[in-house]
Amino acid sequence: MKTRLFEIFTSIEGEGILYGTKTLFIRFAGCPFSCFYCDTPDALPSDSGKEYSISEACNLIDKNLQNNTYKVNFTGGEPLVQHESVNELAKYIKSKGILTYLESSCFDSQKFSYVLPSFRCIYKNEKNNIQQNSCKFQNRIG
Ligand code: SF4
Question: What's the predicted TM-score (pTM) here?
């Protein structure tokens, strides 16, 4: 199995109920949408970023994981486009005892159901009507 990552970096969470926590962001490449307000257009093409095997991606995570990181965000692009590799990497993060956090539109219920057991927190970006610039956010911790 392969995964395609656009970038990986540590920063401070700037949104939601875990605002202010030290976070490793894994930005997955590819998204089927084209929201005009997208702040990561370079990550939308499915061939953007770089391809890794799962073990290479785990090594990359280990290399970038700093001390006292509170959570790891799976973001994009749209992570569910790569739901199988997202699930594998989320299980890897979970095995380290670090909180897993998914940022997604949850556009595909089957793919969302597939990855759901591997995440503690979901940050759902719900696009009610992209043409009319409608967007709301919901949080869930479970
Ligand atoms: S779903 Fe997210 S990543 Fe995709 S185009 Fe919209 S804002 Fe950008």
Answer: 0.89
Residue environment code for 50-73, b if the CB has 16+ CB neighbours within 10 A, otherwise e:
eebeeeebbebbeebeeeebebbb
How far is the centre of ligand 1, averaged over its atoms, from the C-alpha of 102 (Å)? 14
Q: Does residue 77 line the site of ligand 1, with CB under 6 A?
A: yes
124 pLDDT band, cuts 50/70/90, is confident
Q: Going from the N-terminus, what domains does the chain have, and what CATH number goes with each?
A: 2-137 (3.20.20.70)
* pLDDT, tens digit, 9 for 90 and up, residues 59-83: 999 999 999 999 999 999 999 999 9
Q: Rounded distance, CA 71 to CA 94, Å?
A: 10
CA of 73 to the centre of ligand 1 (A): 15
Centre of ligand 1 to C-alpha 39, Å, is 8
